[in-house]
């Protein structure tokens, strides 16, 4: 966690520098020296305000999560509360478009994702993100399918989001947001149709 007093202008500068370095050399190669050079600051500033590389990595992950949350929250606020299908698509798009699709963000996410299996704090942050996604989806799905199926379908959409994102992150052509939405909508439409037919029949 950054210490109180860290100039606000420095935080995004250091976070962006961290992502740029991770994009070039990977997480393990992203040293305090390389990051400080990229940001145009002394290594001492990183050590003073973040306690070293680990603290800066955690702040970078939090910054990505905050931006991700802001993107989805903003998109949802722009849609009517009753537009549940459109709101689910806004949640889907928030994982594949804009900030989340930038090359350095994608590579940083991918690095953190693998590293979080061995780091309790990064794992906790990853779990927070996962729970937030499931929560957003459950709120909208409640109006579209029976209550007992809300969680399984939300988990299914989340699995598709993660899987499609991961395949896109490893693809030299990058993430195809349009294809992601089409594939997830196909799953969603089938679930809605199936459970509606059950209720009717």
Shape: elongated
Question: What string gives the helices and strands in order?
Answer: HHHHHHHHH
CATH architecture of the domain at 64-200: Orthogonal Bundle
Number of DSSP E strands: 0
Oligomerization status of the protein chains: single chain
Return the structural class.
Answer: mainly alpha
Residue-averaged pLDDT = 90
List the uncertain runs: none
Number of helices: 9
Instruction: Determine the strand fraction and express it as a percent band.
Output: under 5%
The radius of gyration over CA amounts to 19 Å
Largest sheet: none
CATH topology of the domain at 64-200: Tetracycline Repressor, domain 2
CATH-defined superfamily of the domain at 64-200? Tetracycline Repressor, domain 2
**Share of helix, binned:** over 70%
Describe the structure.
The protein has 201 residues and is an all-alpha fold. The chain has a domain of 137 residues: Tetracycline Repressor, domain 2 (Orthogonal Bundle), CATH 1.10.357. It has nine helices and no strands. The relative contact order is 0.10. The model has no long low-confidence stretch (mean pLDDT 90).
Architecture blueprint of SSEs:
Blueprint: H1 10-25, H2 32-39, H3 43-50, H4 53-77, H5 84-93, H6 103-115, H7 120-141, H8 147-169, H9 177-200
Helix pairs in contact: 1-2, 1-4, 1-6, 2-3, 4-7, 5-7, 7-8, 8-9
Would you summarize the structure shown here?
The chain is built from nine helices and no strands.
Structural key phrases:
201 residues, Tetracycline Repressor, domain 2
